[in-house]
Amino acid sequence: MKIALITGSSSGIGMATALEMAQRGYHVIATMRHLERGTSLVAKAQQLGVMDRLQLAQLDVTAPYEHVAEIIRDLLSKSGPVDVLVNNAGIGILGPVETLPEKAWRKVMDTNFFGALAVMQAILPYMRERRQGMIVNVSSVSGRAASAGFGAYAAAKFALEAASEALRSEMLPYHVDMVLIEPGNYRTAITEHEYPADLHNADVARALYPEVMEGVEEFLNYHRTIADDPVEVARVIANITENAQPPLRVPVGRVGEVSAQEWIRRRLRESWPSMEGE
Hints:
This protein is of the alpha/beta class. The protein is built from nine helices and seven strands, in the order βαβαβαβαβαβαααβα.
């Protein structure tokens, strides 16, 4: 039985991916920062009859690297080597570049980039030694292009994409695949966590950048109510793990595909300004 380790599995894309891969026969190590938030995952796994293939584990990806590595070692000593790592843990703190406090930038980077990096560095030695495995990093359309109000989130995703692209080349001799999943707007809990006021400065942001903050609020309302089902992303991830020659970047959903096309056009315009307006 193949083994998959998934971070951020208590909700959204992580939960959907854990259930999808368990249904496809994987033994899934579903990690999350707080185990008490895994009740929904357990309930759905029981409904689907896959609880025997699901193992919940506590993992805070923002803990010191040595602690993350120790937890990974302990998990692998009991389960065996991981075939697929899905780095999904993430948070979203939105606001203008000028008004978003340094603490907020660091919090986003710690989870969305350094957290993913810590887990990769802990698991890569095992995959490299076995000369097989796949790492799937859940990025975003914001990993290609940054929008107003999304500076911190996009910066972390840009960093994740850069490291992933470099890692893909570095792992070629060891037959370890590296894939970036770039979802559009899907229903997740990424923006639902409560943060102290010192991470937002929302009143100042609204006064200085009313249009930006209005756009952020519109996004949040859409994200909470109308956005697409994360099960779609989970199925794409599960399908990718069965691909013998996966691509580096996989945009998911209408927004993801449109954003990928816009990214190409933008880069072409930057390289050849004469194309502006075409």
